[in-house]
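Annotated sample (chain length 305).
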Amino acid sequence: MNESAAVRFDRLADQPLQPVTPTREGVGGFFRTANDIWKHRQLLGLLVRRDVKARYKDSVLGLLWTLINPLVQLGVYFLVMGQILGAARGIPDFAVYIFSGLTIYGLFSETLSGATGSIVANSGLVKKVYVPREVFPLAATGSALFTFGVQVLVLLVASFTLGKAPLSWNLLYFFPSVALILVWALAFGLLLSALNVYLRDVQYLTQVLLMLALWASPIVYAWTMVSDLIARAHLPAWVLEVYTASPLTLAVLGFHKAFWGGGTPADFPPDLLLRMSIAFVIGLVLLIACQRAFARLQGNFAQEL
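Output written by the structure step:
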């Protein structure tokens, strides 16, 4: 009896370890992971609702703060920056201009920062339950979309009351702008969320980079100001092209095109929609690459957490 057990143990020791989950290498692994996430869509919805409710837990006004915050921001931009400080002299309908840019930037910022810390914030679930780890950055994205939706409603009202009503086909630029932000923010969010498990400084570095991204995009200044500055400095034309090719810059310009009625064709680069389409395709490729990197790094999440 003892000898037979010893033989069995020796035989098992000689067997190579086999993974219990299917192999998900290459591009095919990306689509298999997407299918796995779809199967867990109810859990994803619960995580989004949990994040939204937890943000305003124990507050008296609760979700009303998602409406109050953008209204206060809009009032500050219109009264203080636009009228008192005179920032509106160079840009017509300045309040709508800056608020539209900050609205789409806010989606990028909240998605990226939320996704970066999502794995660490959900360490309890990661260590105890098997779910596709990508659902946590996706839940942060869903929470950011909720806040973004409320801000867009405020922006629409402001466009009709404080500026020229956006009643042209340019309003459709809303959709490629949002798609562009989501694909790039989610791509970087997946990669940074995995790196943040191994090096917690990543979440603080992300905040610094987001602050730089705010001022590196035409939100509080016009794209034409950058164009004129580059021309006066006699810099090569490709410098402006590199600046304009930033997906955040393109998304901000798209939102200006959609909601800012004070702009003219000269305020935007030529072939804006084509530029956005190219950036979106590049973002999809980057999303697949970042998800593949995430899949390789997630094996030791439980041990690191």
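Annotation: The radius of gyration is 24 Å.
Annotation: The longest helix spans residues 135-161.
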